[in-house]
Amino acid sequence: MRLIYFFLLIIFISFGCDPKNGEFAPEDDFELSAPAYFGSFNERIPEDNPMTTKGFELGRMLFYEKKLSGDNSMSCASCHQQSNAFTDGKAFSPGIDGQVGQVSTMSLVNLLWAEHFTWNGKMQSVEDQSTEPIRNPIEMHENFDNAIRKLEDAGYNRLFQEAFETDQITEELIGKALAQFQRALISSNSKYDQYLRGEYNPTPSEKRGEQLFFTHPIPGQLRGGNCGDCHLGPLTSGAIDEFQGFHNNGLDHDENMDEGLMAVTGNSTDKGRFKTSSLRNIALTAPYMHDGRFRTLEEVIDHYDNGIHQSSTLDILIIEGSNENQASGERPQLFLSEQEKEDILAFLHMLTDEEFISNSKFSNPFENENN
Amino acid sequence: MKIIKSLFYLLPFIFFACQDDIEETTTLELEFIHKAGNEDFEYGKIYQNNAGNEFSLRLWRTYISDVKLMKSDGELYAVPDSYHLIEPVDGNKFSLKLNQIPSEKYKAIQFYVGVVGEENLSGEIVGDLDPSNNMAWNWTTGYKFIRMDGEFQDELGNRRGVVVHIGKEINLKPQVFNFQQDINFSGQINKLSFDLDLLEAFQNPHTIDFEVLSDFQFNDEANLIGENYAEGFVKLIE
User: Fold this and answer.
1) A168 plus A212 within the same structural domain
2) Which of A199, A269, B127, B172 would you label with A25, given CA atoms 20 to 30 Å apart?
3) DSSP state string for A219-252
4) Average model confidence (pLDDT) across chain A
5) How large is the ipTM?
6) Are residues A146 and A34 both part of a single domain?
7) How far is CA A144 from CA A100, A114, A140, B23, in A?
8) Which residues of chain A lie closer than 8 angstroms to B22, CB-CB?
9) Alpha carbon distances (Å) from B144 to B217, B227, B232
10) What pLDDT is attached to residue A175?
């Protein structure tokens, strides 16, 4: 009997010392999970928009909600289609009025590991970028008063109440819910991930492709494809801090180059710098680059191998990245063999994540209705 | 009655159980001041190295790890989870705080330039080791110790890169700084300041001429930079 008291006491003592035991997590806390090799992420979730199950579910409905467009014909998912890793297979996507934009739809994947959004980095948060397309005249072309009225008529107030403890639908809350849904779009079950977890045995070509992808070439010493200099680590996306992940990857020369990051910073040394895309599910997101100029991954690899255009802002990681010694001022080339190009291609195909594109948690919640 | 009695014996135990700061501790701030020779370092500003090349940087990051403090009796105190990523964020300065340092007299501080004992990215995130921080190489080769991305104009007037991405165990360089006299770390906060001198990466003992070589990543020449930063790159200023 005495022993029991003693144990109770010990339990009591040990709880008393650990402040964490006092705080109880909200019941509906949404669990995000990602491999450790993606890097830390909990601190990247904005404090004023924590992930909750209700918020995620509401965001998912809004993402597929055509009432958010001017003529009820288009939702985010019209351009960001799950089966194409949230792209639409087009170089330029028409909005509800048939007008097209000047850049290609971006894949929505692993957005937690980014702090600047869109091709030129003009948006600082997923929240901001989530309400812009609704208003944008060449995209969903709707004003928020109308959109909110339509959501109210469709009974959304209750869902906002559950997610945000207010039944007042606002533009801000629409952005927050959409952002919660999109932050949960984590792709981490590709063949490459399975290989990193020791569950998949890569083919010799895939293995060589991985090596080439991540190796910076040193003439005479190391052969490499140089991709990992910009498409970093297992995420294969650009650096997160400031605009370090924005590069000019040699698509054009000074005269015909798109502005890119310069449109945001006003700095001429930023001309032609664009956001380094994640290459997750890249085999599903053709056509490629901000203007969708390449139809296939073969064309992309040929571009880096032998199609670089020189300019005053061409990235130094491309200037200093060749498998052969090049003379000063010569147009940078990789000098990859046909086999090496095939190997890199094989690696890029390893990044396809079937579970991500078929995960029913991310799919259209209205599928069975005639929406 | 017996229960009460046993509770009584337990009382001092309970009391002390929650007091983990019986030993007095303090905070040590380490400040790193990025320099290029005598000048304060700035991104985008042009500096001249020992070989006469004029160059600028757009990124400069340095890992230090395994910080240890030597008490005046020679005993070492090891800072736990000690991986620190240093970069010029606050002007040319960077400051990090080490908490829970035993309040004592110390005679030296030591650490490594580089990342001790982390060969790949599979491990848990400790200290500033984070695979998403632009210092990771790839799965099997772990972290870059020093990263400098920059450019220079060569003799022919062409833009060329200065790319210094150094890692590998051979380039892990121990740094030991003996204090001129023992320092008593106590009270709220104590501070040590260090200079990091960019130019020292390219000189002493090996003068690096970018016209000849300006790309250091995993090649044999990367080890020359390692030998350069082994000494004189980090300086304790007292």
Assistant:
1) no
2) B127
3) TTTB----GGGTSBTTTTB---STTTTEE--SSS
4) 91
5) 0.84
6) yes
7) 22, 27, 11, 60
8) none
9) 9, 16, 20
10) 98
**pTM (2 d.p.):** 0.90
The band of B6, judged by pLDDT with boundaries at 50, 70 and 90, is: low
What's the one-letter identity of residue B166?
Answer: I
CATH of the domain at A21: 1.10.760.10
Q: Which amino acid is at A150?
A: K
Best of B217, B218, B219, B223 to disrupt the A interface (most A CBs within 10 Å) is: B217
- B138 with A9: Cβ contact below 8 A: no
Q: Which residue type is seen at A131?
A: T
Lowest mean pLDDT among A9-13, B32-36, B62-66, B206-210: A9-13
Nearest to B138 among A40, A222, A233 (CB): A233
Contact indicator for B71, B150 with CB cutoff of 8 Å: no
Percent above pLDDT 90 for chain A: 87
Phi and psi angles of residue B10, each rounded to the nearest 5 degrees, phi first: -75, -20
A21 and A108 together in one domain: yes
Q: Containing domain of residue A228, as a range?
A: 191-352
Instruction: Kindly state whether residues A203 and A181 are assigned to the same domain.
Output: no
Tell me whether A195 touches chain B (CB under 8 Å): no
Measured between CB atoms, does B123 come within 8 Å of chain A? yes
**What 3-state class would DSSP assign to A121?**
coil
User: Is residue A369 assigned to a domain?
Assistant: no
DSSP secondary structure letter of residue B79: P
A81: its two tokens: 């289609």
Question: Which pairs count as long-range contacts for A150-153, CB under 8 Å and 24+ apart, including other chains?
Answer: A150/A67, A150/A68, A150/A72, A151/A65, A151/A67, A151/A68
Query: How does pLDDT run across A3-44, given as a tens digit for each residue?
Result: 445 444 444 444 444 433 333 344 567 889 999 899 889 999
Give B-chain residues touching A17 at CB under 8 angstroms.
17-18
A88, pLDDT greater than 90: yes
Structural domain boundaries in chain B: 24-237
Together in a domain, A182 and A208: no
Once rounded to an integer, what is the mean pLDDT over residues A80-100? Answer: 95
- What's the pLDDT at A90? 95
Token digits of residue A120: 């030129």
Asked whether residue A166 is domain-assigned, the answer is yes
Q: Nearest residue of A to residue B120 by CA position?
A: A37
How many whole angstroms separate alpha carbon A344 and alpha carbon A279? 12
